[in-house]
Amino acid sequence: MPVGHENRKELFLRACRCEPVDRVPVWIMRQAGRYLPEYQAVRAKHSFLEICKTPDLAAEVSLQPLHTLSVDAIIVFSDILVVAEAMGLTLDVPDSGPILSNPIRNLAAVERLREFDPERETRFVGDAIRAICRAAGPDVPVIGFAAAPWTLACYMIEGQTRGDISTAKRMLSEQPQLVQVLLDRIAKVTGAYLKAQIAAGASVVQLFDTWAGELTPGEYEEFELPATQMIFESLAESGVPRILFAKGSAKHLTAMAATGADVLSVDWKTDLADARRELGHRVALQGNVDPSILLGSAEDARRAARAAVEKTGGVGHILNLGHGILPGTPVENAKAFVEAGQTVRLAQRAVINAAIEKTN
C-alpha cells in the first residue's frame, strides 16, 4: 500500500514491521485511566475490578482515549494481576493498590498454582476486546497485554504492587530453582491468555516488564529471557506483532531483541538514537518520552514528541511515553503530545528505504 494511505491499523502494523510510513503511529501507555474525566466518571460508580470484569464497562473506558485524544491504537482496559488470580491467588484492589492475600513463599505454593482456561476464567477480557472491536471497527488496532514473567512473579511473591520487590530478589538469590519453576508456569499460562486475546480480535500484544531493570544482565539472560521467549514463540504462528516493554531497558536491549519481540518499548532513560544504532532495524522501537514532561505545558509535550521522532527518523517507531501516563497529566497536554507526533511528516519511501539499508 502506498505511503500515506494507511488506516490506523495498517499504519500501526507497518511501523511494527519497520516498513515505510508517512507518519508515526501514537498511543500512550495507561491511556485509559485516572487523568481522563470520562474515566473518573465511570470509576465513581464502579470499583476498579468491576470495570475490568464487566466487558461493556472495560470497552467503554478503553475507547475513551480514541475519542478524546485520537490515538492510533486502543489497549484493552484490564489489569496484569487477573492472571495471578486465575492461577489461584486471591486478588483485591482497594484504593491503596492491588493486593494478593496469599503470596508465593515456597515451592508448595508454586505447585498449587493452576493452569486455567482463558475462555472461561478470564473470558471477560476477551469479551471486552470483542466489544471494542465492534465499536471501533476494523481500521483501529486493539492491543492485548499481559505481564512479563518476572514482573508477575515479583507481584505474586510480594503480594502487592507498591514498589518493593526485596522479597522476590531475595528468593531469586536464595531459591533460584523455585523462581525458575514459577517463571515457567507463568509463561505457559500467559501464552494461552494472550492467544485468547488474539482470538478475540487483538491485532497486537504487549508484555509489560516493569521490574526488568532490577535484574542484572546475567539474571535477565538466565531467567527472564527464556520465559519471555517461551511466550513469544507460542504466539509466532498468529502473525500478530509482539511488543515488549521493559523499565530499565538500556542494559538489556540486546537480550530483549533475542526474545522474539517485533517491537521493543523503552523507557525515557534509554536513548532512542542509541537503541537504533545498537539494534539496527531488526526490531521496531516504541517510546520513549518521560511521562513527567506532560505535567508541564502543552508546548513541552509537543517538543518532546517531535524530538523523540527525530531520534529515529520515524522508521520502525511507535511514539509513546517511556512509562504510563501520570494521573495528574492535563488532558490538553496529552492531546498535544498525540497531535504533535501525528503531524511530523516523514521522508518519502525512497529516503526511508535508504536509511534502513544504511543501518542494517
Percentage of β-strand residues: 5-15%
The ordered string of helix (H) and strand (E) elements is HHHHEHEEHHEHHHEHEHEHEHEHH
Number of domains: 1
Q: Segments where pLDDT lies below 50 for 5+ residues?
A: 348-354
Structural class: alpha/beta
Distance between the termini: 23 Å
Task: Estimate the mean pLDDT confidence.
Answer: 94
Side by side, the strands of the main sheet go 1-4-5-6-7-8-9
Q: From the alpha-carbon coordinates, what is the Rg to the nearest angstrom? A: 19 Å
Query: How is the CATH topology named?
Result: TIM Barrel
Total of DSSP H or I helical runs spanning 4+ residues: 16
Structure summary, number of beta strands: 9
Largest sheet properties: 7 strands, parallel
CATH architectural name: Alpha-Beta Barrel
The residue fraction in helices comes out at 40-55%
Q: Can you identify the CATH class?
A: Alpha Beta
Principal-axes geometry comes out as: globular
Write the layout of secondary structure elements.
Layout: H1 8-16, H2 37-43, H3 48-53, H4 55-69, E1 74-75, H5 82-86, E2 91-92, E3 99-100, H6 107-112, H7 123-136, E4 142-147, H8 149-158, H9 166-174, H10 176-200, E5 204-209, H11 217-235, E6 242-246, H12 253-257, E7 263-266, H13 272-279, E8 284-289, H14 298-312, E9 317-321, H15 331-343, H16 349-359
Parallel strand pairs: 1-4, 4-5, 5-6, 6-7, 7-8, 8-9
Antiparallel strand pairs: 2-3
Helix pairs in contact: 4-7, 7-10, 8-9, 8-10, 9-10, 10-11, 14-15
